[in-house]
Amino acid sequence: MRIGVISDTHGLLRPEALLALSGCERIIHAGDIGKPAVLDALRELAPLEAIRGNVDTGDWAVAIPDRLDLQLGGLHIHVLHDLKELDRDPRAAGIDVVIAGHSHQPRIEEVDGVLYLNPGSAGRRRFKLPISLALLDIVDGQPRPQLVTLG
């Protein structure tokens, strides 16, 4: 199973992001969507799960949750926008993967058997950080993440 993970689009969905996400069986947007049109375009590629980030205000964002717990490919995946707001011990909660955006800094890290994945920002460039997203392959119940630099 291949899951596309994107975050911090801030209303900008780049053509190269759409290309990188094509063929994914599922897409997760980890917040700071910016405009509902971003979600509409992602839904055309694959089933979409999305959470609300700190810039997602207005009537269009009210129904979007601020966190998600998903079971995909045999893994428990917890999605929130800002990792600093993680309010539980992932390992004790049986979480296999924590996905968070917000910092715009792409990161793959494993801590105590839990994978932490930040796809970075796929929207407008911030400082000198790369523009990126992530692909999460689940193979035999194991997460295999990779970062994809755009542009």
From TrEMBL:
Q: Which cofactor does it need?
A: a divalent metal cation
Query: What InterPro entries does the annotation carry?
Result: Calcineurin-like_PHP_lpxH, Metallo-depent_PP-like, PdiEstase_YfcE_CS, Phosphodiesterase_MJ0936/Vps29
**Pfam families according to UniProt:** Metallophos_2
Residue ranges of every copy of the Calcineurin-like phosphoesterase domain listed in the record = 1-140
Which EC number(s) does UniProt give?
Answer: 3.1.4.-
What GO terms are given for molecular function?
A: hydrolase activity; metal ion binding
Keywords (alphabetical) are:
Hydrolase, Metal-binding
* Presence of the UniProt keyword Plastid in the record: no
Broad class of enzyme this protein falls into: hydrolase
Task: Supply the PANTHER family for this chain.
Answer: VACUOLAR SORTING PROTEIN VPS29 (PTHR11124)
The family assignment reads: Belongs to the metallophosphoesterase superfamily. YfcE family.
Instruction: Please identify the protein, giving its name as recorded.
Output: Phosphoesterase
Q: Source species, please?
A: Stutzerimonas stutzeri
